[in-house]
Specification:
Elements: E1 2-15, E2 18-23, E3 26-32, H1 39-51, E4 55-56, E5 62-64, H2 66-69, E6 72-77, H3 99-117, E7 122-123, E8 130-145
Parallel strand pairs: 3-6, 6-7
Antiparallel strand pairs: 1-2, 1-3, 1-8, 4-5
């Protein structure tokens, strides 16, 4: 499972010109679910992201977590994070989980992120053509792969 995390001042997801979800200060998490991902990957990733100390403290050092600042999460499924670009110029997505596997894991991710954060999170819509708008703060962008926990 791959997550691209962006620290934001605000963010929103629109579908067909209508805002579906929006957050203030917090994290946009773009989540790519792979063929071999499991509930263990979701659980590890959610805990890691919610506890990650990437928000500024009173001395402007990255020392506070999302929980510490009572920030929000906007979780968006994004199968293209699993793209393979090894051959040719057209990405292959064979490593991305099919919807019958990915949807239950995405739904579980929503539940676990909410539990870890202690409040509901905002989401995109699985499989929809979404427009994500955000104001990246810093900018801070971090990539986490649950298969590379070192």
């Amino acid at each position: 499972m791959i997550a691209v995390i962006q620290r934001v001042q605000n963010a929103s997801v629109s579908i067909e010109g209508k805002v579906k979800s929006a957050i203030g200060v917090g994290l946009v998490v773009l989540l790519g679910i792979g063929n071999d991902d499991t509930l263990e990957d979701v659980t590890w990733l959610a805990k890691k992201i919610v506890q990650m100390r990437i928000f500024a403290d009173s001395e402007e050092k990255m020392n506070l977590s999302l929980q510490d600042i009572n920030g929000d999460i906007l979780l968006v499924s994004q199968f293209t994070l699993l793209a393979s670009t090894k051959k040719g110029n057209r990405p292959s997505f064979v490593e991305a989980a099919r919807p019958e596997v990915a949807i239950p894991l995405y739904e579980k991710a929503i539940e676990i992120f909410s539990q870890e954060l202690g409040k509901p999170i905002q989401t995109g819509e699985f499989g929809a053509n979404m427009q994500v708008s955000l104001c990246n703060d810093g900018p801070v962008t971090i990539i986490i792969d649950s298969k590379n926990k070192k």
